[in-house]
Amino acid sequence: MPSPTSVQTIVMATHGSFGDLHPFIALGQALKARGCRVTLATHPDYAAKVEAAGLAFVAFGPSREDYVRDLRVNPAEIIRRLSNDHGFMIKRLIAPYLERSIRDIAPYVAEADAVLGSPFAYGAHIAALLAGKPFTTVALQPTVMMSSYDPPKVRQAPFIFEPSGELGRAYNRLIMAAGEQIMAASQSQVRRVYRKYGLHPRVGLGGIVSDHRTLALYSPLLAQPQPDFPPRTYLAGFPFYDSENGHAPVMPERLLTFLNEGPAPLVFSLGTAMVYGGEAYYRTAIAAAKRLNRRAVILSGPESPLLKEEFGLNICVVPYAPHSLLLPRCELIVHHGGIGSTAQALRAGRPQLVTPVFGDQFDNARRVTLLGTGLRLDFDDFTVERAVMRLRQVLYSDKIAAAAQAVAPLIAAEDGAERAADVLLNARNVNTLAA
Fold first, then answer.
1. Would you call 197 helix, strand, or coil by DSSP?
2. CB neighbours of 304 closer than 8 A, spacing ≥ 6?
3. Disulfide engineering: 199 pairs with which of 50, 194, 256, 405, CB 3.0-4.6 Å?
4. What is the chain's alpha carbon radius of gyration, rounded to the nearest angstrom?
């Protein structure tokens, strides 16, 4: 195992849900195992989880309570606004707290050898630039790479997804430029903060564009490297971490009993953010499972009213379960298309139905479909009738089942955290744009 040569103290920063947090924990643990001092800066809500995983924690940006108080809406309404307004995340969830985020992380960046951040961790990027420290952008999904050769699926942009020549790529670049103009208003406050500190705001549709290095922590099966990626981009593969509380994953006893007492169930999940607006979705899922005469597991989140209800012997509602333990034991996985859920579903080798809500989820759903491992049904179209129809298409497709099984060992063999640690510590035989 390589030992650190030039980078010993590393600060990492991310915003978002478990799908954003878990890859950074996996990478942090890989770096720590090689002798690095690693600090992970993220939402205050995650302090106990990060520390239980053995990493130093720094509060970076607002908590969920801050959002609810400042926006004066409940979490479900926040999710609704996220799904309806592409700029809401930057305008309302990041930009108002940017100066605070810089103050939170600056003392730790000052002592670091290198800084890593998710594409929208602007506070960490600004602090790194001010301190003269190298900043690595960590891309967790293909969407943020914004390639004209392989553009992302988003709700409104009419990209050519397989441009056959320069004319098609030029058209895609034109659409991206138009998107930059549309997003300019959402990013205006962020850009003002950069300029306040005398910095050039190298930010685009995909977030921070680092002039130092980009780590792409997703599978090359989802998206291959492209000629217009930023210089010094490294495609490392999925990094896997799966724990609710930072300790070794454990299956809830009630769920384990349910799994042992009957055929493999359908599993319905909306991740750790979307669950706040998911009650109606889950009730539809339960009705669809009953119509299909299938057993089902509902991962409802800890605050769902469904936890207080009974739906019969064939339905098990639990707040959470480790995906690495649950998904391999299911018949079919229905999820929202978050990159963390997508990675775990691919590794489990089970067919998928992806029900995207916003952001990168539409693109992840498209790529799952291209792999042949599942189908898509948008969240807004998730009625009992449509869900039953699409679930039947997936359940009775030998082709989808075979593709899912074929992909699983390839995904399981990826170790994005270890490979990314090699890149960061300048290990030998690490090639740019290699999988």
1. coil
2. 275, 278, 279, 282, 317, 319
3. 194
4. 21
208-246 tens-digit pLDDT: 999 899 999 999 999 999 999 999 999 999 999 998 777
**CA distance from start to end of the chain:** 19
How far apart (Å, rounded) are the C-alpha atoms in residues 60 and 16?
Answer: 11
Q: Which amino acid is at 393?
A: Q
Which helix (H) or strand (E) segment is 95 a member of?
none
- Residue type (1 letter), 216: A
The distance of Cα 317 from the centroid of its chain, to the nearest Å, equals 24
Topology match between the domains 9-239+415-424 and 253-412: yes
The answer to whether the predicted template modeling score (pTM) of the entire model surpasses 0.85 is yes
Q: What top-level class would CATH report for the domain 253-412?
A: alpha beta
> Could you state, in order of their start, the residue ranges of all structural domains in the chain?
9-239+415-424, 253-412
Mean pLDDT, the chain, integer: 92
Give the position of tokens 């599993």.
267
Look at domain 9-239+415-424 and name its CATH class.
alpha beta
Answer yes or no: are the C-beta atoms of 320 and 299 closer than 8 Å: yes
Residue pair 15/82 in contact (Cβ under 8 Å)? The answer is no
According to DSSP, the β-strands at 203-204 and 207-208 are antiparallel
Match 């999710």 to its residue by tokens.
79
Residue-wise pLDDT for 258-298, tens only, equals: 999 999 999 999 987 665 568 899 999 999 999 999 999 99
